[in-house]
Specification:
Strand content: 5-15%
Helix content: 40-55%
Order of helices and strands: HHEHHEH
Strand order of the largest sheet: 1-2
Number of helices: 5
Shape: globular
């Protein structure tokens, strides 16, 4: 898609704020589940050549894994392969923001940003996903990379 204008702030009404107040009580448990899913992905996907996982051993930071974003130069082929296998993934940044004409940044070049935009994809990550579903995603990603290794 193309970026045309800046967004705007929408404040919650009282009813929406009350719903959020109830949901926030579950947040610590949801974060722990996301971390458990991420750990399962890491264990299952570790060591695949050409695949970068979002785990950085820095004790100053704790990731909540709103998304589980992996990186591979074969992102588009992986996206299509997983789609055919029934695995829904997300590609958040098909086009770097600075390349949207409305921002007026023509002539700029950020090679790492462009590389990231071509290579990142988010695997399923939500608190309702089961361990069996996570394992299916892992098996599907592994089979994609194994097919390429065999050819």
């Amino acid at each position: 898609g193309e970026y045309y204008y800046h967004g705007f702030t929408c404040l919650l009404d009282n009813l929406q704020a009350a719903f959020l107040d109830v949901k926030l009580r579950h947040l610590p448990r949801w974060i722990e589940r996301r971390r458990a899913i991420a750990a399962r992905y890491q264990a299952g996907l570790f060591g695949i050549p050409g695949l970068t996982l979002p785990h950085f051993p820095d004790p100053r930071m704790e990731e909540v894994f709103q998304n589980y974003v992996i990186r591979t130069p074969r992102r588009d082929a992986l996206f299509e392969y997983l789609k055919a296998a029934g695995v829904e993934t997300l590609i958040h940044w098909r086009k770097p923001y600075y390349k949207h004409k409305a921002l007026g940044m023509d002539g700029q070049s950020f090679p790492e940003t462009e590389s990231i935009s071509r290579e990142v994809i988010s695997l399923p990550m939500n608190v309702e996903i089961s361990d069996e579903e996570v394992d299916y995603v892992i098996d599907s990603v592994r089979s994609f990379f194994e097919l390429k290794a065999e050819s």
